[in-house]
Structure formats: structure tokens, C-alpha cells
Design brief:
The structure is a single chain. This protein has 25 helices and 26 strands. It is an alpha+beta fold and 753 residues long. It has four domains: 3-23 and 48-334, no CATH class; 359-473, Rieske [2Fe-2S] iron-sulphur domain (Rieske Iron-sulfur Protein, 3-layer Sandwich), CATH 2.102.10; 480-608, Translation factors (Elongation Factor Tu (Ef-tu), domain 3, Beta Barrel); 623-752, Nucleotide-binding domain of ferredoxin-NADP reductase (FNR) module (Rossmann fold). The strands form six sheets. It has an eight-stranded mixed beta sheet, with no helix packed on it. Strand 21, helix 22 (632-645) and strand 22 form a beta-alpha-beta unit. Helix 24 (702-709) packs parallel to helix 25 (728-740). It is globular and about 85 Å long. It starts with a helix and ends with a strand.
């Protein structure tokens, strides 16, 4: 690769600069466009069935066993290659669509059937089942968003050699084998750690060891019986039979737009014949699947008919799709910004935020904590509805056995309303990630859901359904404290320092590194209402940010770390970065950060008691702090407490990274701490300094600067305590660096911002 090619490469890793930018631009776990579908028609499409998947699975496994038997019978003859081609394609390519649909839990009505098929097909397609379930959940949350989607198969510019190897399974098998062996050794891959919760680590390691054991057993069998046949049935089909998978898979997103919040523009529907649709399980209807992932594969053709008025014209065949894909890939070799622009028909909805069906409560019908929702007959059995009252949103459910339940409206895993979900038994399935909650107590029922819901009591009186919002179960609200805004000033271009003082009581007790929850009230604002001081205001105006807007309709909470010394300071300070809206997208800026940026001196807010375990460890070890962006807050709390209150003599260094000089803040404070404390060292690095910065200091990512200037020159890296706080990309890159030094996990504390 020459220097010019390197310059135009985009960063698709989950721990690079694009990961940070995706969060800053509001592209992470965002709200996506959906084609309006009448609720009764959608309800019919969402019906789960065992029959179609049982029929198709019997045919699939029958063809696998039949072709495999012919391979065994004809082994040693030239014509054994014919059934082997069939076997390997069914094994390595067709298993991909079975893996995909069963991962959503929609192939069968019966859950254990989905789980069994998922585990079998995961092994056949050579994907670690637990890892890829979370990976695919992220793919649906952040489809083709650079730095967020772990399943972008054709990055720009595409390396032609890598593209060719994809048809032989090598480009996917090699990195997957590295991850498999790493997990089997008891370590979690650094990119995997960005989208899978720690509670799943043991399961990942356990299954990786099972995979390795199976492969080793097959190798042993081949050696003992002096034949390659066992490997031809398990292992090698991944290489020999993968070629059909990219023919199908590349049609999904290749050549289309990136970083957009409309599946019509980054996904492709391709019309295929019955044979292809059987092998591919209707995933050729890919726009439809991404927009409505709860719809089972066997109902996608009907969904296509309902949606086609609102979507680009589908490609008429695989050949027709590749006629536009291949030229686009070649153009992207020279110009990574090029993409195929899908034209929406004249009948399509152009606006992003279509209004979804909901019931709004009437305040006149509110009495003794109860609010009338609707007539009982307005909710049919097996249905979920959205119900809004005052500044909160709820989901109301009626099960098939005629029981009514109510929970908070928003899924705890992602940005999706459960009123759009599917009631299955006494569970609700999220419309975005297929995770499930138990309706009786709000507890998580199926991954990727990990955090439970608040539930509420419902009553039926005289044919009317009532919601008792005073009777909250399972997640009692914590006491909230009243604080007044002392000041709210810019310390960097896009970062404010919010200072609060208690209204009635003394400041509550907390320890360095903890966070609070700030109550975000309903509001509507434009950025020109913010008080932005110079020289930062000029940058905002130059980038046309003052016309951006934000609004919030409900009482919600956001977590913010404190930047204060609990023993010395009498007020609380926070560092909060504005979450800007994506370019060319008609969406609002960050709800929490916009609310904070609009606070003025004298305003009153409510915050919770402190939480969090990002705390100072009790030891005499050397301490290294690594930070970036708004991750400064808890690090400042730590360091001011250690050096000004505790007056520790522990060796401490602080390594802080920013994009340019205008993003630096508290520099003078830490330089003064350095002058007063011989045991403290402060270091700065800029990753993209401006020409006007006249910067003569360190340039690069902060973890790389730390490595080059200190860590690689010492021998006791494993004996140091590390405290990391900042953007996810910085955290994961730092964790990878520390993993290379085999630093024990118990010596690393981190908090992502």
C-alpha cells in the first residue's frame, strides 16, 4: 500500500477516531426512519410460526446429510467433488442465513428451537455464538455507522485482495480464529469488549473452549485414522463452501451510503428466485428486514409489498445488483467518499420523524394517582400500545390470556419504544434488538437486554383501563436533591463547566470519581439561546451551529461525573460536552447535553445521590491517569483529592489528550499542581493541532504518547495502577495497550464517556 492509499483509508475499527465521532455526532444508537405500516397489517406480519422454519430446516439438514453421505460413499473418486460442493455450500454459506434469523429469535415460534439452530449454525459458519449475537445487535443499532458497526463487510477503499479472499473464507476465518484462541485462553478481544457486557465474558470463554475442543477432536480423528475426511466434514467446508455467502451478503450494503439514519439509503433489496430465497431465507429483502427486524423471514415478501411505495426500486437480480456494486467499489478505490445514491420514489415519505400511533392521557381523567388510558376493547389481545401522560411515556400490554401490564416505555438497552414491540406470552420483545422483558416484574428475559424496567399496576373498571402511576414496582426512584446553578461557562469549544450549589441542605457526601444523575426536564431550545463565550462562540458561528435545536418531551435522567474534591470544595462541578446533531440529518442534538448547555446562573436543577465505583484504590503503587474530552471530570476529582487533600507521596502522572489546543482546559490548574508536587507529572498530547496553535508539544493519540515517552522505557508496567476516563475509542485503545503488557485487570479502572 502506497502513501497515497494510506491517506485515504477510513477508520472502521471500533476503537478509533470514527468511534468517538459517531458518538459526538449523535449517530450512535440513534432514532431511525421507519415506513408507516397500518398496525393491523403489521400485527399479522409479526405472528411467529414453527411450520415454515421446521419445513425449511428439515429440507436443509436433509440435503446436508444426503450430500455428506454421498461424499463418504464416493470418497476416493473424482465425482465425490460434486456432492462435496453441495455439502460445503450448505454447511458454510446457507448456514449464514439460518444463523442470522435464529439470532433474532424469529425463525421459530418456540424459543428452544431458535436457540438450538443458532448454536449449530454459529459453529458451521464459524462465528462464536455469544460474541456474534451482541455484534449483530450493534449492527442493527448502528447499521453502517463507521466506528460503531462491527459488521461492515466492504470498507472504503476496499482492498481487492481482501475482497477476493472473502470468497474463500480466509479473510473472515483468520481474524475469527485469532479471537477464538484469545477467548479460549481466558482473555477478551479488545474490540469485542466494546459491545459485549462483562457479564457475558465467562460464557464467551466457555464456548470458545468448546469450539477449540471440537476442532482438536476432528484433527485427532484425522491423524488416528490417517484420513482427511473428518476435516472435510468439519472445518474445511468453511473455506471451500463460503463462496456463495459473499455473493448474497455483498448485496446487502455494498457501495451504499454510510453514516445515515435511513435504511432505505444504506441497505438494498434484491429480487431473487425461489432457490436463492430458500438458501438465503429471504434476507434479500434487506431494507425490510433492517427497518422491521421483528418480522419473521417467511413474512418478508408480504412486508415488501406493503413498503415498496416508500422505498427505492429493488434490484431485479443478483446480477443486476453486482452491476452497480462492482463499479462503485472500483470508484471507491480512488474516492472513498463516493457511494450509490438510492433514489426514493415520488410516493416515498421524505421526512425522518414519522408520527407513530400513541394514546395521550387527559389530565382531567387523572385522580388518586390513576389515569384513564382507554376502553378495554381498544387494546386487542396480544397487543402493545404507547401511552403518554404529562412528561412520561409508558407501554401498556394485553396478553393473549387477557392480562394487562404496564412498564416504562423505552427499552433499557437501546433507543426503542416497547409500545412498538411484540407481546409473546407474558414477555415483551423489543422492536429494535429482539431482547425481551418479563411483563410481570420488568426483569430481563432475553439478551441483549440486561437492565430491567419499572412496572406499574393497571386496573379495569366499567370497561375502562386505568394506569396507576403512583404504584411503581421493581425500580424505586432515588431521592433527588435541589441545587442551584452558580455558573455555566465554556472551558473548551464544545465543553461546559457546570457549577452547582445545594439549595437547602449541605453538600452530600461522596468519594472522588463518583457520578450523579441529573434530571432533564421537558424543554425545547435553539442553540442561539445558549451563552457561548468568546473565543469559542466564533467557532460555533463559523460552523453554523447556532441554528441547531433540541427538545425533550419527558422527565429523564442523565449521568454526569463530578469534577470536585469532596473534602475541599463546597460546590459541585461537571464537565459536559455537547452532543452535536449529525451533518445533513434533520434530527435534534443530544437531549441531556443541550439541556445543560442552556442552563443559566440561578436556575434550579435536581440531582440524585452519588453512584459509581470508579474510585481510588488503596495502595502505595504508582498511578497513571489517562484521559480525554469530558472524561476530565472524575480524573480531576481524583487528582485534586490525592494531591491537595490527602497530600499523597505516591508517584502519579496524568496523560491527557485533546484534538487541538482549543479543546484543552484546566491546563493551568494541573501545571500548578505539578509545580507544587514533585511526585506529580502532567503531560498533554494533541491529535490534530491547528496551524494557529503553534503547538510544540506531543502530537498523537494520548495512549501512543504514553507508550513512547514512558511505558516502553520501564519494566514494571504490571505493577502500576491505571485510571482511564474518556471517549470509548480512547478507552479501548488504552486497554489494548495495557493488555499487551499483561497488566492485571484488577489494576485497571476505567469509565467511558
Amino acid at each position: 500500500m502506497n502513501a497515497k492509499e494510506k491517506q485515504i483509508l477510513r477508520d472502521y475499527s471500533l476503537v478509533g477516531v470514527e468511534a468517538k465521532r459517531a458518538v459526538e455526532l449523535g449517530l450512535a444508537d440513534a432514532d431511525w426512519y421507519q415506513t408507516p405500516i397500518p398496525k393491523d397489517q403489521m400485527r399479522a406480519l409479526l405472528v411467529r410460526k414453527n411450520g415454515p422454519a421446521i419445513r425449511d430446516s428439515i429440507i436443509w439438514f436433509g440435503l446436508l446429510l444426503g450430500s455428506g453421505y454421498l461424499v463418504y460413499l464416493w470418497w476416493g473418486t473424482w465425482y465425490a467433488i460434486i456432492p462435496y460442493i453441495v455439502y460445503s455450500v450448505l454447511y458454510a454459506s446457507s448456514s449464514d442465513s439460518r444463523w442470522h434469523e435464529s439470532s433474532h429469535g424469529t425463525a421459530f415460534k418456540t424459543d428452544w428451537m431458535n436457540n438450538v439452530l443458532y448454536e449449530i449454525s454459529s459453529f458451521m459458519v464459524f462465528r462464536q455464538s455469544t460474541v456474534w449475537k451482541w455484534s449483530h445487535a450493534r449492527h442493527h443499532s448502528d447499521t453502517i455507522i463507521r466506528g460503531r458497526d462491527p459488521e461492515i463487510s466492504i470498507p472504503r477503499p476496499t482492498q481487492i485482495k481482501t475482497l477476493i479472499l472473502t470468497f474463500f473464507g480466509i479473510s473472515a476465518a483468520v481474524p475469527e480464529m485469532k479471537k477464538l484462541l484469545k477467548h479460549a485462553s481466558g482473555k477478551i478481544d479488545v474490540e469485542v469488549a466494546t459491545y459485549i457486557p462483562k457479564s457475558e465474558y465467562k460464557k464467551v470463554i466457555y464456548k470458545a473452549r468448546i469450539y477449540v475442543l471440537i476442532f482438536l477432536s476432528v484433527i485427532v480423528l484425522s491423524i488416528v485414522y490417517n484420513t482427511i475426511l473428518p476435516l472435510m466434514f468439519i472445518g474445511l467446508p468453511t473455506l471451500f463452501g463460503t463462496w456463495l455467502m459473499p455473493f448474497y451478503g455483498f448485496t446487502q450494503h455494498a457501495g451504499l451510503d454510510e453514516n445515515v439514519l435511513d435504511h432505505r439509503l444504506n441497505s438494498r433489496t434484491v429480487l431473487m428466485n425461489r432457490v436463492h430465497r430458500f438458501l438465503y431465507w429471504n434476507m434479500n429483502y434487506h431494507v425490510e428486514h433492517h427497518m422491521f427486524p421483528l418480522v419473521p423471514y417467511h413474512a418478508l415478501p408480504k412486508l415488501h409489498e406493503l413498503m415498496k411505495y416508500d422505498c427505492p426500486k429493488p434490484n431485479t437480480s443478483i446480477y443486476d445488483a453486482f452491476k452497480e456494486i462492482l463499479p462503485a467499489i472500483l470508484k471507491q478505490q480512488k474516492d472513498p467518499t463516493y457511494f450509490i445514491k438510492k433514489e426514493l420514489p415520488a410516493t416515498a415519505h421524505k421526512t425522518k420523524n414519522t408520527q407513530k400511533a400513541k394514546i395521550v392521557g387527559d389530565v382531567d381523567q387523572f385522580s388518586n394517582g390513576k389515569i384513564e388510558v382507554c376502553s378495554v376493547e381498544d387494546i386487542i389481545q396480544g397487543e402493545a400500545i404507547r401511552f403518554d401522560f404529562k412528561d412520561k411515556t409508558y407501554a401498556i400490554y394485553r396478553t393473549n390470556n387477557d392480562q394487562f401490564y404496564a412498564t416504562d416505555g423505552m427499552c433499557t438497552h437501546g433507543n426503542a419504544h416497547l409500545g412498538d414491540g411484540v407481546v409473546i406470552g407474558e414477555t415483551i420483545e423489543c422492536p429494535k434488538h429482539n431482547g425481551r422483558f418479563n411483563l410481570k416484574d420488568g426483569s430481563p428475559k432475553r439478551l441483549p437486554v440486561c437492565v430491567g424496567l419499572k412496572t406499574y399496576t393497571t386496573h379495569v373498571e366499567n370497561g375502562k383501563l386505568y394506569l396507576d402511576i403512583s404504584d411503581v414496582k421493581n425500580a424505586k426512584d432515588d431521592e433527588m436533591f435541589s441545587f442551584k446553578v452558580v455558573s455555566n461557562k465554556n472551558v473548551a469549544t464544545f465543553i461546559k463547566e457546570l457549577e452547582l450549589e445545594p439549595v437547602d441542605k449541605e453538600l452530600f457526601e461522596f468519594v472522588p470519581g463518583q457520578y450523579i444523575q441529573l434530571e432533564i426536564l421537558p424543554y425545547k431550545t435553539k442553540f442561539n439561546e445558549f451563552v457561548i463565550e468568546e473565543p469559542f462562540k466564533s467557532t460555533w458561528e463559523a460552523n453554523n451551529l447556532m441554528n441547531c435545536s433540541a427538545e425533550n418531551s419527558f422527565h429523564i435522567k442523565r449521568n454526569y461525573s463530578m469534577a470536585t474534591d469532596p473534602k475541599k470544595d463546597k460546590t459541585l462541578k461537571f464537565n459536559i460536552r455537547i452532543a452535536l446533531p449529525p451533518a445533513n440529518e434533520s434530527v435534534f442534538a443530544g437531549i441531556g447535553s443541550s439541556y445543560v448547555f442552556n442552563l443559566k446562573a440561578g436556575d434550579e436543577v435536581k440531582i440524585s445521590k452519588p453512584f459509581g465505583d470508579f474510585q481510588i484504590k488503596t495502595s502505595e503503587r504508582e498511578m497513571i491517569y489517562i484521559g480525554g474530552g469530558a472524561g476530565m471530570a472524575p480524573l480531576k476529582s481524583h487528582l485534586s483529592y490525592l494531591l491537595e487533600t490527602q497530600k499523597t507521596d505516591r508517584k502519579i502522572s496524568f496523560w491527557y489528550g485533546a484534538r487541538s489546543k482549543s479543546e484543552l482546559f484546566y491546563q493551568e490548574y494541573f501545571e500548578q499542581l505539578q509545580d507544587k508536587n514533585e511526585n506529580f507529572n502532567f503531560n498533554i498530547a494533541l491529535s490534530e493541532p491547528e496551524e494557529t496553535d503553534f503547538w510544540e508539544g506531543n502530537i498523537g493519540f494520548i495512549h501512543e504518547v504514553l507508550l513512547e515517552n514512558y511505558l516502553k522505557n520501564i519494566h514494571h508496567q504490571k505493577e502500576i495502577e491505571y485510571y482511564l476516563c474518556g471517549p470509548p475509542a480512547m478507552i479501548q485503545a488504552s486497554l489494548k495497550m495495557l493488555a499487551d503488557f499483561n497488566v492485571p485487570k484488577e489494576r485497571i479502572a476505567f469509565d467511558e464517556f
